[in-house]
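Researcher: We're teaching a course module on how sequence relates to structure. For the next exercise, students receive a sequence and then see the predicted structure as tokens, so they can try to spot secondary structure elements on their own. Here is the exercise chain.
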Amino acid sequence: MKEAIITYLERNGKSNINDLAAGLDMAGAEKFPRLIKAISSLESKGKLRFDNDGNLNLRPKEETKKLITVQGIFRANKAGFGFLSVDDDEEDMFIGRNDVGHAIDGDTVEVVVKKPADRLKGTAAEARVVGIVERSIKTVVGKFILDDDKPKYAGYIKSKNQKIQQKIYIKKEPIALDGTEIIKVDIDKYPTRKHDYFVASVRDIVGHQGDVGIDVLEVLESMDIVSEFPEDVLAEANAVPDAPSDKDMIGRVDLRNEVTFTIDGADAKDLDDAVHIKLLDNGNFELGVHIADVSYYVTEGSALNREALNRGTSVYVTDRVVPMLPERLSNGICSLNPNVDRLTQSAIMEIDRNGHVVNHQICQSVIKTTFRMTYSAVNDIIAGDEELIEQYQPIVESIHHMVALHKILESMRERRGALNFDTSEAKIIVNDKGMPVDIVLRSLGIAERMIESFMLAANECVAEHFTRLKLPFIYRIHEEPKAEKVQKFLDYASVFGVHIHGTANKISQSALQEFMSKMEGKPGAEVLNMMLLRSMQQARYSEHNHGHYGLAAEYYTHFTSPIRRYPDLLVHRMVREYSHLTEDKIEHFKEVIPEIATQSSTLERRAIDAERVVEAMKKAEYMEEYVGQEFDGVVSSVVKFGLFIELPNTIEGLIHVTTLPEFYNYNERTLTLQGEKSGKVFRIGQPIKIKLVRAEKETGDIDFEYLPSDYDVIEKVAKSDRRSRKSGRGNGRAGRDDKQKDRGRNKISDKRAKRSSEKRKGKRNSDSNSNNKRSEISALSSKKKKSKKPFYKEVAKRAKKRR
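Model: And here is the predicted structure for the students to work with:
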């Protein structure tokens, strides 16, 4: 096959895949995958390549000898440069703005390595894009804009995705567009050397500007997060009965006589978990965690399963939920409503006084809950509310047993080193028009924390059960943090004078836990918690069990939310299928789990991105009416180009370094900015007085201005800082593109902060030091005529004084 491909391209020159398939008689469902596999192999070996139009061509032999090519996912920065993600075990490669070619964020690209990484200097490898393997963006959503600049097009849209800078021109359609529409389009042509813009066709009119909730809908649609379900999916959901039959209960453990109840938020409708608890004669607790058996209704091969897998997870944004499953299931037969029979899967655990599971049963079951409890009601019962205690007398004893067991489990996790990232979360309150009217902090009472404790126990128990059986399984893993990020955290933590045992290459959870305990209640403790959280790797799904670092758990999976997470649904399916074990089932799950794990991790990240974008947009919209007002805040992050300030309600904004009243040196080790003349220092956790100068809903950007106050801290300016500026090290004296490369090379130490920094930078000048220098020269230039000395001597004299 490979020889045939090479021969064809030698004879015919460059060709698209469809022509190649037709020429080699490899079209069709059976043959085509073989062709793709052969092309991929030849491409990875550098024998052929894709051009910017998606055509295949042989790579010249002299070129294949010189080039070392790598494939990966391109992650763009809106400033023009980007990074290549190869896999989780390798550091990303930096791609300068002149080496990006026509790659778009998320594209699978082929790159040539220009410069290897230097771990001693902490610099990333540099690469250049030489081919586009697969385009990531197939559809785009945006506001339609009428434009006569290109007469053969109706107009264009500008994507809400800030990493797509080019215009997307729309083909003239039979339906007339008037410029008020929000439209979804299919990309027909991508930017090339010939034209630096997209060409697209209208797929759907999402809505119109001014429609209630259109701003959130535009974000969701732009990420392919769609609310409506296909007709075949809804048809399957509507065919599900309203209640389980006697036949459905055959072979299940009957737990309907247990005192079982749900505890959820007051506005929850999909009640997918319930609990029962008993104090045993031997002093141990019996805890039953019962989860809606969604997999019984969402069967493998069904339209419901296909759609759930494609969605991966429910997406929660300010005023709506985009569910993974139709409401007919999630709010109906799969919701554990009180006093009705429901099919469940249960993890029934005997837990001793040290918090260890000494016995367990994982089974398919049927339950009937007694009460639908809310967190607030349970918290009030725990606090001694007599009226509620009387109302819910049948479960009061169970609630007190739950509190006792929760404290045991919490102590057990703390002893083994689990990290508790106690950070503030905000809830954005919107009115019936989708406008944000308030932002409040979420508070977690004992009821919320104890339900979380029980779900963690069930997840660990199920994961360990299947690990012991040595069967293919899907795990929720959280790997050890990377040394570079830990070192950055250790460097900054040392500023507080608290010693942390361990090194960047090997640091235990207990050492970090001890540090967090010592910092509790001190200024900057919450910011340090956030810094530590950012130094952690992102949790993901995997077919391999690597444990969960943050929980200090040897075994962990997701079992408790199959209504809203596909991996949980898969675990339930395996519980059922493995109860009648065959070799075919083992091989089947061994084959499908890796792809499901990867896809679920990707879709989870997409959901998180959507939630963050909507949250930033709504927070900026909320702050628009407060422009010009002054606030007290806390420095939440210090970067080379400025300060991020967080208000008590979690709203965060930027003070750009160019708006500060003097030149500021950035110390990367201590993460501080210090005024060169005044000695004024800004560091993480420090209170600060600010004024809101800009809030832009469209981009989610919020800008603050620094105000002098009693919070200011002044320290002696180190001579080395003055010298560093003179020699060009300080904030950097390189040109704009060189500075962007510098950010890429230093990405290893703090990639997330760098990416976050560029999000806020926008159209501002990227070289703040050059701005300061130009201002100084400009000031000197105005004195030029008055001075008897030549201008360059005056500059030299000033520089000597600084030294």
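Model: If you want an answer key for the exercise: The first helix runs from residue 2 to 12. Residues 727-803 have pLDDT under 50 and may be disordered.
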